Amino acid sequence: MGRPPRATRRVKKVKKSEQPADQTKATKARAVLKKGTHLKSKHKVWTTATFRRPKTLALKRTPKYERKSAAKAGTVNKYKVIQYPLVGESASKLMEDQNTLVFIVSLNSTKTDIKRTFKQRFEVDVRSVNTLIRPDGKKKAFVTLKGDQAAVDLGSKIGII
């Protein structure tokens, strides 16, 4: 005697889009398990024999606070720019022959600073200023006065002569 035939049920086929989310996750997980995690990776093709270190990403700075609270004021102290006059044979010769006074000035002062402070302190017009840095590290300025003013007169007024 055989078994009685089973009652067959018709199973409705479900499209993939209609499958529940858990079922699609399960099928994806099964595919990964079947394939395996250690797959063969592709290697980079090198075109040169020399190794060049890769350029790293330079991010823009985002400071938490300003390092300087206020900009530095560009004021020049007229008594710090011109420090003292040079007195010697060569300086006195320049004073007489070329209408030029020789001074030691601060190292960070510019020619325009020297010209401006000279005009303020001694009330004379300056034609030109030449500077050099001496071997001992001090800055020497040659201040040439305009033609109508005599350097010898100013030198005696200051107390050089």
Automatic annotation (TrEMBL):
Superkingdom per UniProt: Eukaryota
InterPro entries on file: Nucleotide-bd_a/b_plait_sf, Ribosomal_uL23-like, Ribosomal_uL23/eL15/eS24_sf, Ribosomal_uL23_CS, Ribosomal_uL23_N
Molecular function as annotated in GO: rRNA binding; structural constituent of ribosome
Keyword Nuclease belongs to the record: no
Entry keyword 4Fe-4S: no
Biased composition (Basic residues): 1-15
Entry-linked SUPFAM superfamilies: Ribosomal proteins S24e, L23 and L15e
Cellular component, GO, one term: ribonucleoprotein complex
Coiled coil feature spans: none
Keyword terms: Ribonucleoprotein, Ribosomal protein, RNA-binding, rRNA-binding
Stored PROSITE patterns: RIBOSOMAL_L23
Ranges where the Large ribosomal subunit protein uL23 N-terminal domain occurs: 24-71
Disordered: annotated segments: 1-30
GO biological process, one term: translation
Family stated for the protein in its record: Belongs to the universal ribosomal protein uL23 family.
NCBIfam families referenced in this protein's UniProt entry, alphabetically: PRK14548.1
The protein's name in its UniProt record: Large ribosomal subunit protein uL23 N-terminal domain-containing protein
Source organism per UniProt: Euplotes harpa
